[in-house]
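Re: your question from the hallway

Yes, I did run it. Sequences:
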Amino acid sequence: MRLPSTVAIAWRNLWRNGRRTGLALGAIGLSVTLVLLYDSVLRAYGEWMVETVTGPMLGHAQVHAVGWRKDRSMDRTLGDVSATLAALRRDPEVAGATARVYAPALAALGEEGFGVVVVGLDPAAEARPMGLLAGAREPPAAKRVLMGRPLAETMGARVGDELAIVGQGADGSLANDLYQVAGLVNTPVDFVNRQGVLMDLGEAQLLFAMPGEAHEIVVYGRDPDRAARLAARLASLPELAGGEVLDWRTLSPEMVALIRIVDVVWVFVLVLVFVAAAAGVANTMLMATWERTRELGMLLALGAGPGRIVRLVLWESVALGLTGALLGTALGVGLVALTHRTGVDYAALTGGGPSELSFGGLRWSMRLYPTLDAVDVLRTVAAVVITSLLASAWPATRAARLQPTQTLRE
Amino acid sequence: MGVWGLIRRASAAAALLACAAAAAAPPPPEVDRLLARLDDLYRSKSSVGRMEITVVTPRATRSMRLKAWTRGEEEVLVVVEAPARDAGTATLRVGDNLWNWLPRIARTIRVPPSMMMGSWMGTDFSNDDLVKESSLRKDFSGRVDRRSDDPPGWWLSLEVKPGVVGRWARMELLVSDEDLPVEERHFDRKGRLARTMRFDDVKLMGGRRLPVHLTLQPADQPGNRTEMRYLEIQFDVRVPDDTFSLSRLEQNR
Amino acid sequence: MAWVEGRYAARSVGRNLRRTALSVVGIGVGVGLALFMESVNRGREGLFARAAAYSGAGHLRVVPAGWRLRRDPRLRLHDWRADLEAARALPGARVAAPRARAQALLAMGTHVLTVEMVGVDAEVEPRAYRFVRTMAEGRWLEPGEAGSVVLGKAAAERLHAELGDDVLATAVGQRGGIESAMFRIVGLVASGSEDLDASVCQVTLEGLAQLAGTAGAGEVAVILADHHTTPEARAALAARVASGDEVMTFEEITPEFGGHLKQDAATSRFVNGVILLIVFLGVASAQLAAVLERRREFAVLSALGMGGRRMVRLVLLEALGLGSAGAALGVALGLPAAWHFARHGLDFSSFMGEGYSFQGLLIEPVIYADVGPWMVPFVAAVAFGATVLASLYPAWFAARIDPAVALRVAQ
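Structure:
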């Protein structure tokens, strides 16, 4: 133990000027916190968009009979849906699967007919969080149906009214029956609100003469990013032979494009956030190190070699950068952890934005659930440490090259 | 909406009962007179008939039996007789209004104009057949194209007259020596074959000799076709005035 | 005597040139970044407003009373010529385009397609509706020709029709009757969006009148030179249109879009907030770092008899000086970048492809940064806000300094 190592001296040095160190730590730490918070909101925004797009209607993958998507013909059905659903649910990547019937029909309270689309669905499955019927008070059951509120307004329908529905069965026969309006709903999907009569799946199968059949099976996977692979794997299930399995990105390129453009803009901003944070950290470190020229000169005069001085300053910056980054990470991660479960109201976050809006035929409730990935933290910490290192290296090497007398004069 | 188109053809105007006997090697027909005859073959001031419609798709075949009343161009009533599940269902058309009577739920529902433009019951007839007043003689200028040997008759070639609003640029008609239609080929405005209508099973029905079985075959969907067979038809019979009224529509049937 | 502090502050700034330069560069970079960000964000709002305006909605639209609720395309303006005159005379109006619409069924042989057919003024429309400016095939409509139609390429494909073909159009007429007319395809439009191309179906006003059986226009769309003036222009136009007609803004016409704009503005606020905080933090901490090292200097000044109040003034004056220089540098850094992107656009299309359509609006992923007088107060607020805030602590520190203690600490 000849000399305390440079690292140890650097560490001790840091605490000799507590005020300066505290300031640098605060600047670095808060920058890291802000970058991480931005990161977490960015991630939350992305997940929220995917959830909003896929949650109520689209799902992560859909199964149809070949050709149905093109002509929506009533008789292009998937057979023996319960067996298919059971097979789908056996896949460990499948979080949920539910079947739907879509039937164009004429609905009437009195004599006037209105064009509607009867959506036959499984109320329990559609009530999942972010689902079509999430929060609906009364599910459709037997002869009781739900109507989209705008449709009901157009038709003048009220809860309790008797609704005649006329359409064509999958076998070409005439489908017609009377139903009671059990409730009016505002689902997140515009088309359902404007045209939809929501009926229990079994009842719809009965009305449209398609026992055990459906037009669509919606699959929710564990991870929307892996939907394409999931769809490809599901397509090879024997129960789905003859069906067409597509993931949500293939089904809704428009929504994917929307998510893409928003993502690109956010990432662009992330770069600027990084630059701004780095500039702040660099400026602080430069300033602090430069003000130490006199002190460093004193060390030189006491016989410390220039290399040792540079090493000393660099170790100090690394220690500062790391400590600041860790403090900032702790604060940032803590805040994210606090809000991750409960979510943040976007309106509050942005100072008075809308708390929900409808766009692209969907209603978007503006609640975000901040989340972080280890990559975000590592990236930010690394960037901060490197920045503070570089920002102090320049003045330190410069000071080390000066004559001690010169530095004292400065 | 195929029923309507065909029923329209079977409605209004005076019937020509000329029933020329086939000659061995007849001279080419006079085109204008022939087109007028074809236009009026199924038309009458009023009619009562029963028919069977079969829709064939690659996945299924289904049939229904209908009874239909017509008067003039504007009034049509159709009641489903079979299948049993749909029996009694009636459709009334007066001018541009269309109503359905549904006995199972005892309701009359008016079909909104926007839905009248859509397809109906999955037949290969289109709304155009419903809404268009088409007349071979007025809309097309025809000429005799060539002689057909089997069946003996003439192929006529029809070009649409300038300024006519319609989907077909050209038609090819095979008319037998009996002056009855055998085949109509419809070519779209690009001159591509779009669909073929075949007429066969010539019978004496309602005082006219005419093909009672019609088949419509879209050109680009070989697996699909719609067939219609007249089971009985009476032309120019008296139809009670209240036949085409809502109150009558809702009575029993 | 403020000028004494002023002189001292100026000398102090000048004496330690390196520190000053560093401060100014720090403030300048921060201000420049914030300025650029704000400029891009303001441009982003313009992205959607522009897309909406040139995708047919216009900034303002004169519509018949009753259209607001029923949205029935068959409604016609009470006096469309008077409305058009009023719109053209409106200050700040760039284009006023009359249109009439009808739900129509196009048929080519056995192929049919439901579209919204739009009757337009052939001369004006290309300036109001971006996608008909460049035809993929054929030509645009000639004024007055009734029997021609311009279709989106995808619409033509679905009909199995090509340039030069005649299509049959069927529409529900004014009194519920069913009307038909023939149209020849004279041009095909390819906007890059399948969705949009399947819906474009434009004829002249005369052509639409022939089909629907009613002449006139159902709307006059107005595009303004500056979308920020929409509220005033709307009030001015509303006072001049024919009675029985009213004026709506594009946000009212597509409330969804209005909601989206609000959400977008909210996002901008959040993003800007984060950037501003980081810039503030960077500038303030660097200033603090500089001032902390000057305690010895303050102690000397204090020992020389400078009062606390004067010392505060001194520090604040220095901050203002640094802030001004930083603001100038920030503008010098940020403005050219913003200017460049205001002229050439910030193009995201390499990430996106050509563009994407949404609800009939084709949105080009190119952001034109916004450059304007708003920059002056913005830059001043950021630069002075950060520097003065950062100087408050040292000023307070300077004011209560005990020279003896300060000198000892500084040793």
